Amino acid sequence: MAAAARSFVQEREAEPAKQARVAGSELVDTYTVYIIQVTDGSHEWTVKHRYSDFHDLHEKLVAERKIDKNLLPPKKIIGKNSRSLVEKREKDLEVYLQTLLTAFPGVAPRVLAHFLHFHFYEINGITAALAEELFEKGEQLLGAGEVFAIGPLQLYAVTEQLQQGKPTCTSGDAKTDLGHILDFTCRLKYLKVSGTEGPFGTSNIQEQLLPFDLSIFKSLHQVEISHCDAKHIRGLVASKPTLATMSVRFSATSMKEVLVPEALEFDEWEPEGTALEGLVTAVIPTWQALTTLDLSHNSISEIDESVKLIPKIEFLDLSHNGVLVVDNLQHLYNLVHLDLSYNKLSSLEGVHTKLGNIKTLNLAGNLLESLSGLHKLYSLVNLDLRDNRIDQMEEVRSIGSLPCLEHVALLNNPLSIIPDYRTKVLAQFGERASEVCLDDTVTTEKELDTVEVLKAIQKAKEVKSKLSNPEKKGGEDSRLSAAPCIRPSSSPTTVAPASASLPQPILSNQAFSKGFHL
User: Which stretches are tagged as biased composition: Low complexity (predicted)?
Assistant: First the structure.
C-alpha cells in the first residue's frame, strides 16, 4: 500500500538507470552495423550505428566533455568484418556506451542523446528537442496561424516533465528550456494530436495508450485528436471557453469520455444554467463556444445525455460508430447538419421530435427499411439514404411531401434496382420533381416527361378508385373536414435555401482551412 501511494516523483527516482546493450550486428554492403537496444524504465527502443558513427561520437565527447580518449575500442583495418572481431567489438562497444550513461546519469550530453535517439523516445530528450524547435520557429507558427501537429508521446513527455517539478532547464542550454513550450501552448489556437497504431518507431512504446494533459493549451479554437485513448486524455475541458471545432476520431468508446470526463466522479450531474431538480451532485459547465464536433470512426454505441453540454452545436458527425437509436438530440436546438452514416440504426420512429431544425441528414450505411419517421422534417434540404434496406417505393412517399428537400440519395437499396427506378422515385415528389436531385444526378427533361405520365396514370387510378367506392370517398371526405391539417408549431418556416449544393462533410479540409487534414 505504501508503494502504491508514492508520488510520481518518487517513482521516477526509483526507476533503474538507462541502459544500452549491443544486441547484435548485421553486414550492410561492405561494413558492419551494430544493433543497440536502449532501455529507459519500461520503454525500449533500437538504434543502429556503424563503427565510424561511434568514432565520430567519441571525438566530440573528448572535445566537449574531456572523456578518456582510450575509452573507445580502436579501429581495425584488416579483417574488420571478421566474425571474431565483430563479436569482440560488440562487447567493447556495449561497455563503452554503458560507461557513458553511468558518467552522465542525469541529462545526457546533446551529442550522446542524439546518438541514442533520446530526442525520439526519452522524456528529457523529447522535451529538449521540442523546446528548441519552438524557440526557433514558435513565433513564426503562431503568427501564420498554422495548425501545430504533435504526437501523444511528445505530450506525454511534457506532462511527465511538469509533474516532476524540476527546473525547466536541466541541460544548461537556454534553447531547451521547458518555458518555450509553455509559452507557445498558452497562445496556440490550432492543434492536431495524432497517435500511431502499434509500437512507435523502433520502440515498444504504444503511443496511443499514453496519458497526457492538454490543460497547458489555454487558447485553442480548433483541435483534432486521432488514435489516442480518450480515457487517458486529461485537461481538454480547460478549452471549453474558446474551443469552436473539435474532432476526436479512433479514440473513444462513448461521448461522455470526450464531453464530460468528470462525470465518472459524480452520481448525478446537470449542465450549468439548467433548473436543478432532485439530487444533483455536480453542475458541469457547458462547451459554450463549440459549434462543430466530429466523433466519427469511434466505438460509440449511444447518443448519451452528455450532448446537453454542447447546446450550440450546429454540425455533428457520428458516422462510422455503433449507434442503435437516435436519442437526446432534442437538446441541440441549433443542429443543422447531422451525419449518422454507417451506424446500426434500424428505426426512425419519432425522429422528427429530436431533429426539428435539421437541414442535412446523412443516414447512409444503416439497417433502415422504413422512412416513416422522416415525414415531418420540414426544414430538410439534403438526405442521404444510400446503402440501407429500403425495398418499397411506398417508403419514398414519407419524404415526397417535404417542402425543402432538394438532394436525395437512395443508391444501393433494394428498390434502386427496380425498372424505371429514377422516374418512379421522382414521381413521389409530385410537382416538385424538377427541383429534386436524385443520387447526385440532375433530373432530365425526358425523366420529367415520364414523371408526368406516371402522375397522370396515378391520378386516373385514384379517380377510378373513388368512382368505384363512393361510400369510402364520402367517409374520407367527412374525416378530412373534421380534422383540419395543422402544421406542428415547432416546425420552422420553410424557406428554400439559396444554394442547391450539398454542404461539405463535417470537418472536411474546407472546414479545417487552417490546416487540418483528416
Answer: 488-501
DSSP-H helix ranges across 248-389: 255-259
Least-confidence region, from 287-291, 397-401, 492-496: 492-496
Length reported for the chain: 518
Render pLDDT for 50-91 as a digit per residue (tens, 0 to 9): 999 999 999 999 999 999 999 998 877 545 667 888 889 999
> Count H helices, E strands: the chain?
13, 18
Q: In this structure, are residues 436 and 447 in contact, taking their beta carbons and an 8 Å threshold?
A: no
Quote the DSSP letter at residue 438: E
- Alpha carbon distances (Å) from 300 to 201, 230, 516: 29, 12, 23
pLDDT in tens, 15-27: 457 999 999 999 8
The answer to pTM > 0.90 is no
* CA atoms of 201 and 208, how far apart (whole Å): 13
Q: What is the mean pLDDT of residues 282-286?
A: 87
Phi and psi of 128, rounded to 5°? -65, -45
186 contacts 216 by C-beta, under 8 angstroms: yes
Backbone angles phi and psi of 503, in degrees to 5 = -65, 150
